[in-house]
Amino acid sequence: MTAQTYLFPCLKDNYGVLLHDPESGATAAIDAPEAAPVEAALAGKGWRLTDILVTHHHGDHTAGIGELKRSHHCRVVAPRNEVQRIALVDETVGEGDTVHVGKLAGRVIETPGHTAGHVSYFFPADKLAFVGDTLFSIGCGRIIEGTPEMMWQSLLKLRSLPDDTEFYCGHEYTAANIRFAKTIEPDNKPLAARAAEVSRLLAAGRPTIPATIGAEKTENPFLRADVPEVAKAVGLAGSPAWKVFAEIRERKNRF
Ligand SMILES: [Zn+2]
Predict the structure, then answer these.
(1) Eight-state DSSP code of residue 163
(2) Annotated catalytic, 100?
(3) What's the CA-to-centroid distance between 141 and ligand 1, angstroms?
């Protein structure tokens, strides 16, 4: 049987997500923004929490770890480069490491930039990626601890995943991201189609994620910094992609 996922809102605009292996019964929470919604999700699904896979140290991704660990005695897996800033870590991981959730095998991809040690988790058999605050649907995370070059390289790693990879990010920011993306590529047709779909989903009270890597390649300006028309649109024709990316990120910060 293949992996199952369950997405649910936490805090103001965070998402929690559970990854479940039906064969072994193992369940991982990807990050733990707060304990209560994770507990409610587990109870609703009838799943038992065995692991927490942490993407980065920010409080809105880690605040629930203590309470969840106390009640479930679950294993906490966290990025090696942020272990001093995350409580109760059992196992640290870095680039290329394999993490098991029951029989599901995930690969660790280091995606620094939002924070210095941020990691993403990719489960190739099910083509599922958990990307924290590195990639958002039609957006990307703020560069808080890294450089634009570093963040661009992290996004390239995620962009290289198979097109039909479904990725889960840490926040529901898609509508605002689309408003910004249209200022960079007002004539992008796939983006316009996505905007309509996102409006429909949100009006129905539904989440806009997961999204696919393939769709983001055509719609997300932050993954398109090496497209000549995008460079031209921000007045940087012929510049290195990371500089185009930095300019787009800077514009989004001011948007
Ligand atoms: Zn964050």
Answers:
(1) T
(2) no
(3) 7
Q: Give 1: exposed, middle or buried? Use CB within 10 Å, 0-12, 13-18, 19+.
A: exposed
What is the Cα–Cα distance from 29 to 7, expressed in whole angstroms? 10
Q: How far is the CA of 240 from the centre of ligand 1 (A)?
A: 27
DSSP lists the bridge partners of residue 29 as: 18, 52
Query: And the tokens for 147?
Result: 């450089």
| Three-class SS state of 154 | helix
Asked if 6 contacts 45 with a C-beta cutoff of 8 angstroms, the reply is yes
User: Tens digits of per-residue pLDDT, 62-109?
Assistant: 999 999 999 999 999 999 999 999 999 999 999 999 999 999 999 999
Distances 134 to 109, 129, 142 between C-alpha atoms, Å: 11, 11, 8
Contact 157, 109 (CB under 8 A): yes
Token pair 């910004």 is at which residue?
Answer: 180
Distance CA 9, CA 172 (A): 9
Residue 21 falls in the annotated catalytic set: no
The rounded distance, in Å, linking the Cα atoms of 251 and 234 is 9
Assessment of whether the complete model's pTM goes beyond 0.90? yes
